[in-house]
Amino acid sequence: MTDEMRDDRIDREIRRFLAFQAEDVGGAPSALDMTARIASSSTRAGRIGRGTRPQLVWIVLAGLLVAALLGAIAVGARLLREDTALVVLPTPSASPQMTVVPTEPLAPAYEAVFVRFAEATGLSEDIVVIAVDAQGNERELVQLPTDERAGAGFRPNLLTEGAAFSTTGLLAIPRSIGSYRYHWEIFDLNSPNPTPLEIAGITQDFDHRTPNFEGNRRPSPFWGPADEAAIPWYNRGLSGNQWHISFVDGRSGSIETVDVLEHPDDASDRIVPYWAADQSGILMSTSAGPRHLLRDGRLAEPTVEFMSDGHSRPFNSNGVAAPSSDDNADGPLGELLANGRQISDIAWSAAGDGLWLALSSSDETQVVAVSELGGLVESTALVFDPGPTGAIRVDGHLIGLAPDDSMIVLSSDPVMPAEVGEFTQRDLTPSLLVPETGGQFDVEGSFAGWLEVTP
Amino acid sequence: MTVERVAELLPARSDAAIAAFVAEHYDRLLRLARLVCRDASDAADAVQSALEQAWRKRAALNDEARMRPWLDRIVAREAIRISKRRQSLLGRLLTPVQNVTWIEPGDQRASDPQTFVALRAAFVRLSPDQRAVVALHLHLGYSVAETAAIVGAPDETVRSRLRVATQLLRAELEESRP
User: What's the complex ipTM?
Assistant: First the structure.
């Protein structure tokens, strides 16, 4: 028997098994029962409850009891804010009436926030904002209004890719306003019914949008202290693109715009998604080194610390770029390189004294590993199958790092061989990695930022 | 049960329309969800959720010919979502042990019980994403491109998932041979 005949026979057996397995639906409701459930749900607002499983009743009751207890404790401690859809960490405030007892502060926990389209309904699609925790559990934060937000006629997820989310619950997202043009709107997801706050004065072409600060892609908004966003944008001029940075108050929508005179349309001059800790401006990476772009448009030597907004972290708080593998052949990275590993992306760790590395191997096992060099050494791996395309390896890109390094969002892009003109295909499904547990989860949608939640 | 029979049992016109809608699609959707989910209860939940969504939004679908792939898409994604939730640590803690219907070698339902035991063991080990593409491509007969559109992943990702899944199933099958 030839291999081909054997494969055919095996495939037939697999198909027979699938048909058999698909029929194994004992215990599922009948069509009539299902009709009754759906008819029931269609007559009342909201979602219908699923078929109840008796075994779950006790668990649900116990869960409700625990939730009630936790709720009472939380209310007693005045930790809950009124009329909020999200529970975020409250801003600490001094209270002279309180006796301060020194305690170990609770470390914030984070959830990765993604924006994606809900199920398609013809040409109109709703946008859903979801948060994913370290166990890979998804929860819907909000579903945003539909209609023209879908950008009908263009690439389906065009408008979700530029979305940027602040740790305090503000979402900046582009809205289509006509042929290949859009403007920015901000939603406060702490509100039960968020309404768009339109940012005046910025209108962009679609090619401005920039997912996740990968490689040389152009940046979209990034959030800084006090719920302020910096929005880089440009308009086209006779002598080239004219770049601007707008500093936008995410609560009021007030905007200050400065021109960026000498920059930054090439890889050597980059707007970096970091804010100065004192809100005096943002960080730029230039061929002359890191620069502090002030609110009046002047460039200065950086003398303050800069804070990453939780996307990739190629610079530390002093504006120092992470070493490249080219610069480090004799350093700690040299051993990895000598073992035939390709280093596809490097970022600083949150503490600034270590490095996150996205590695890829060029052998047939095709593993993307993420490791930290420096203090703790953690690693997790994402197995990649090159598929029939003949990709020679996969490049991992660090799209986002949680402010405490507890989670990483990674894209894994197949690299095609040189004979077809080596290029990287972008995989649109990002993976959420949890180094401490080794968990890895594929998440549909575009990464937008991190939500700070009470532990 | 026929469409007419279901409709007879429900008095209101809108309910009859729902009944016809469910009767036309339910069996196929339940089988698809069953392949993605690990048990029939989750599969039924996925189908219910999908049919609710579809019923609410059906007016937006102008082309009746697109109804089947549209429904399959909603069900497949819902089934993947539910399966992933079950696989999470929290999901595993909260989900009671299922009543497993295992195929014993003497099970007369299977033409080759040993093969089916091996395949079933391997199939359960696939990820929900892999089970979905296997179900859509190998069971329902969608092309790779159509499968990619249904699950919302690039073609190459779907090919990759199919390749890994079928390799695993084949390997398990080969090992089960005496």
Answer: 0.81
Question: Which range of residues forms the domain containing residue B166?
Answer: 102-178
Most B-contacting residue of A5, A8, A14, A124 (CB-CB within 10 A), to test interface: A14
Q: What H or E segment, with its residue span, contains residue A222?
A: strand A222-223
A22 closest CB neighbour out of B44, B139, B161: B139
Q: Which residues contact A305 (CB under 8 A, 6 or more apart)?
A: A276, A277, A317, A318
Quote the minimal CA–CA distance from A126 to chain B in Å: 12
| Residue B50 C-alpha, separation from nearest chain A C-alpha, in angstroms | 10
Same domain, B65 and B107: no
Taking each continuous run of H as one helix and of E as one strand, the counts in chain A are 4, 26
Taking only the tens of pLDDT, chain A with its 455 residues reads 566 666 777 777 788 888 878 877 777 788 878 887 777 765 543 333 344 444 445 556 666 777 667 666 555 444 333 332 333 333 333 333 332 333 344 556 899 999 887 764 444 467 889 999 999 999 988 887 655 444 443 334 446 777 899 988 999 988 777 656 778 889 999 888 888 899 998 887 665 555 444 444 556 789 998 899 999 887 766 666 677 889 999 999 999 999 876 554 444 567 788 999 999 999 888 778 888 999 988 889 989 988 888 788 888 888 888 877 666 666 667 766 776 677 788 888 887 777 887 777 655 556 677 777 765 555 666 666 655 556 677 777 888 899 888 899 988 777 766 555 545 555 556 889 888 787 888 888 888 999 988 76
Which one, of A384, A294, A305, lies nearest residue A344 by Cα?
A384
CATH label of the domain that carries residue B42: 1.10.1740
Q: Does B112 share its domain with B34?
A: no
B90 CB neighbours in chain A (<8 A) are: 135, 137
Residue of A nearest to B168 (CA): A14
Task: Please tell me which residue of chain B has the smallest CA distance to A123.
Answer: B60
pLDDT digits (tens, 9 = 90+) for A109-133: 899 999 887 764 444 467 889 999 9
Q: Are residues B13 and B73 part of one domain?
A: yes
> CB A13 to CB B60 under 8 A?
no
Instruction: Tell me the CA distances in angstroms from A28 to A384, A392, B33, B73, B150, one per residue in order.
Output: 36, 45, 11, 20, 24
Residue A15 has its nearest CB partner, among B15, B111, B139, at: B139
Of A21, A47, A120, the CB nearest to B35: A21
Q: What is the CATH number of the domain that holds B145?
A: 1.10.10.10
Same domain, B4 and B90: yes
Chain A contacts of B177, Cβ < 8 Å? none
Verdict on whether the full-model pTM lies above 0.90: no
B134 contact residues in A (CB cutoff 8 A)? 18
Judgement on whether residues B77 and B118 belong to the same structural domain of the protein? no
Looking at B99, B120, B140, the residue that finishes a domain is: B99
Strand partners, A433: A408, A440
In this structure, the number of other CB atoms found within 10 A of the CB of residue B114 comes to: 14
Residues B14-26: tens digit of each pLDDT: 567 777 778 888 8
Query: Do residues B76 and B53 both lie within one domain?
Result: yes
Q: Across the interface, which of A25, A119, A121 has its CB nearest the CB of B34?
A: A25
Assess whether B137 and B55 both reside in one domain. Answer: no
Q: Choose the final residue of a domain: B99, B129, B149.
A: B99
Asked if B87 and B116 sit in the same domain, the reply is no
Look at strands A299-300 and A289-294 and give their pairing.
Answer: antiparallel
- Give the CA distances from residue A258 to residues A198, A248, A286, A293, B115, in Å, rounded to whole numbers and listed in that order: 19, 12, 18, 10, 69
**Where does residue A425 rank: exposed (0-12), middle (13-18), buried (19+ CB within 10 A)?**
middle
